[in-house]
Amino acid sequence: MELSSLTHLLHSVRRAAPGRRIVLFGSSSLLGSFPNDDPHAIGVAVTQDADFFIEPDDASLRRALEDTFGEDNDYHAATGHYGDFVDLRLSESFPEGWRERLVPMPGFDNVFALHPVDMAVTKVAATARSRLWRRLGKSSSDRA
């Protein structure tokens, strides 16, 4: 994902969820810490999605945002990228203190990105958990 694509998506989400705090996590969160770096160099060029927490969390708002900006919807078809709006309870598996290390997203008030180290730790832990669940027969596929 290019920074311009993420910025467009963030502006759209902000209009649809005014006054909400937005936390970006996953691979595309690296663009918050490295906005001037080449997406190929930081490994986000092939990323089509951005993962979001919306605070305060609201299931009906998450569904509405997913219906508008989610995968396989009009926004995705028109732009080639999309948002995943995730239940804030997922953050319970994040490293302790992750909120204190959030990175302000350049050009936005009240939009933050997960710190790169927290993002890496979270991804490694999720992959390990997924593989363990698969080996125990509780999941059908490894996390990529």
Blueprint (SSEs and pairs):
Layout (H helix, E strand, L loop, with lengths): L2 H14 L4 E5 L4 H4 L5 H4 L6 E7 L3 H11 L4 H6 L2 E4 L17 E2 L6 E3 L2 H20 L9
Parallel strand pairs: 1-5, 2-3
Antiparallel strand pairs: 1-2, 4-5
Task: Compose a concise summary of this entry.
With about 140 residues, the protein is α/β, with parallel strands linked by helices. Helix content is about 40%, strand content about 15%. A five-stranded mixed beta sheet has the order 3-2-1-5-4.
What is the chain-wise order of helices and strands?
Answer: HEHHEHHEEEH
Helical percentage: 40-55%
Computed structural class:
alpha/beta
Q: Uncertain segments of ≥5 residues (pLDDT<50)? A: none
What is the number of helical segments per DSSP (H or I, 4+ residues)?
6
Major beta sheet summary: 5 strands, mixed
Shape: globular
Number of beta strands: 5
How many structural domains does the protein architecture include?
Answer: 1
Q: Average pLDDT, to the nearest integer?
A: 90
Strand residues, percent: 5-15%
Strand order of the largest sheet: 3-2-1-5-4
Distance N terminus to C terminus? 17 Å
Query: Over all CA atoms, what is the radius of gyration?
Result: 15 Å
Please explain how this structure is put together.
With 144 residues, the chain is of the alpha/beta class. The protein has one domain (3-115). It is 41% helix and 15% strand. It is built from six helices and five strands. The protein has helices at 3-16, 30-33, 39-42, 59-69, 74-79, 116-135; strands at 21-25, 49-55, 82-85, 103-104, 111-113. Strands 3-2-1-5-4 form a five-stranded mixed β-sheet. The longest helix has 20 residues, at 116-135. The chain is globular, with a radius of gyration of 15 Å. The protein starts with a helix and ends in a 9-residue tail after the last helix. The mean pLDDT is 90.
